[in-house]
Amino acid sequence: MILTGRWSMWFLLPVALYALYRTLLQRQYIVAALQTRRILKVYPWQAHTTPESGIGQIPRAKSGDVWLAFPDPDQPGGVVRMILHGHARSVWWRRRLGRGYETEKTSQVAEVWFAGDPRFVGVVAVPGPRRLFLLYQLSSGNSSAESEWNPSPEAVVMARRAGVRVTG
């Protein structure tokens, strides 16, 4: 019996470590899901056909960062670029956005749904039941978002209702 206990311990140790890893990772998924739900309660979905996207070459973007451009809600004709910050669920999006040429994968994001305010936070998705992705501006936690895009007071109130911390 004692030898069987040692053997099973070595066999189950990787399983226990993986379970611990998934438990810690699940907390991040739950927080992101709650933030996504809060955003979707405040902002309606908007469909965008072939939104402008790229890799790097914008302020605050590293050389490999993929970004999407959405219309500025307060300035007609203006755009706000949002960087897709990397984590495990961003791989699908990174493989399809930012390329300068058309492939089978890039055609999967020909239509993009967006809910939110690109100056603060948003949720992006493709038509269908999967591929929700939470986007946020790194400056949405301080007053630089207000000074950079000069949002209206109504936009700031809506952002706060969606859970964004905006000072000022």
Number of helices: 4
Stretches with pLDDT under 50, minimum 5 residues:
140-146
Class from secondary-structure proportions: alpha+beta
| Straight-line distance between termini | 67 Å
Rg to the nearest angstrom?
Answer: 20 Å
Form type: globular
Strand content: 15-25%
Strand order in the largest sheet: 1-5-6-7
Largest sheet: 4 strands, antiparallel
Helix percentage range: 25-40%
N-to-C SSE series? HEEEEHEEEHH
Number of extended strands: 7
Mean pLDDT: 81
Description:
The protein is of the alpha+beta class and 168 residues long. Helices cover 36% and strands 21% of the residues. It has four helices and seven strands; from the N terminus they run αββββαβββαα. The chain has helices spanning 2-42, 91-94, 144-149, 153-161, and strands spanning 46-49, 53-55, 66-71, 79-84, 111-117, 121-125, 133-136. A four-stranded antiparallel beta sheet has the order 1-5-6-7, covered by helices on one side. It is globular and about 70 Å long. It starts with a helix and ends in a 7-residue tail after the last helix.
